[in-house]
Amino acid sequence: MKTGHTHLFIPGPTNVPDEVRRAMNVGQEDMRAPDFGELTLGLFSDLKRVMRTTTGEVFIFPGSGTAAWEAAITNTLNPGDKVLMARFGQFSTLWVEMAERFGLDVEVIDVAWGAGVPVAEFERRLGADTKDEIKAVFVTHNETATGVTSDVAAVRRALDSCFHDALLFVDGVSSIASIDFRMDDWGVDLAVTGSQKGLMCPAGLGILAVSQKAMEVSRHSTMRRAYFEFMDMVKLNADGYFPYTPPTPLLRGLRAALDRLFREGLDEVIARHARIAEGVRRGVHAWGLDLVAEHPSFYSDTVSAIRTPEDVDARDVLRIAYDEMNTSFGSGLARLSGKVFRIGHLGDFNEGMALTALSIVEMSLVRAGARIQLGAGVAAAQRHFTGVATANPVLRVAAE
Ligand SMILES: *Cc1c(COP(=O)(O)O)cnc(C)c1O
Question: What is the atom index within ligand 1 of the atom nearest the CA of 64?
């Protein structure tokens, strides 16, 4: 029998704070009530604050992040349009596949899994595109499969330096509300996220922010869409209503989650993610293991993808943690299966949770046959969190 707390250290869905869970425990409500708009209009404006946009429109679709991808593509592009994408992990791969299913002419750049968006190569292709055939550039801001964060601002600079007019699509599903994201400053046209990662809610909402430029483009784009049609949303959202039944308990949960985010402060939330992620990485390095992310400039502050030693199957580590320690870590996706496990450290997360995660990884690794020193990763993270560099200050004081 499993007892005690079930630990969820996957990069989404993330842990839902109690106050968010309580806020969702409500009776069903009238989504056409005269005062219903007070809830939704507040959500739209606060999601804009999270995305750091004053001019964009925010849509909330019942669905997950993948639904928001579909809404973004179908509303702004035309069948056969050329788009520029890079593939360096499972999520960027799925995005390419969706674009292909919709009949886009996808120019894909394959990059090592562990690297990020190839900005220089993007710039070269945009510069060579003198006829403006490329209609959109896609960036997976945080590749959740590999724990790699890419430089969206640099992609904007590449577009601008080529005077290129392509739309900039950003998948921010595992970055928005946890890693710095600036829609207006970076000139992002379509920013995608979901409710179950940085926003600390259950899955069920696909959230999309759209620039005025993309809104204008959507008026003339010819790709077929029905459920995700922006204009249906725009008409009813203006007063806070929806063209179909919204999942009202989730909206109540999102309200509580946004209140919590702003109570802590968006900058503080981002700084907390950076601090905790660095502690986790120090733990990984203390074990002598490698991150999938090839270079510190790519390190993700929301998820760490860790390679097991050659002779240790990452699936054993995950199974031992789950069966024996009531703990879930993220698996290695696609080509990383068996070689990699992931620690999600985003959303409602703190230092104690990071230390618990590191401790359970250590036990699971040792049980799976890895030769690492128990406690080494935990101690390295503790040193980072306390700012005390000495391995054991108490013993040192005793010796003096
Ligand atoms: C989780 C995730 C998705 C998929 O989102 P769903 O909500 O599962 O549809 C897409 N992109 C990234 C980067 C993700 O982390």
Answer: 7
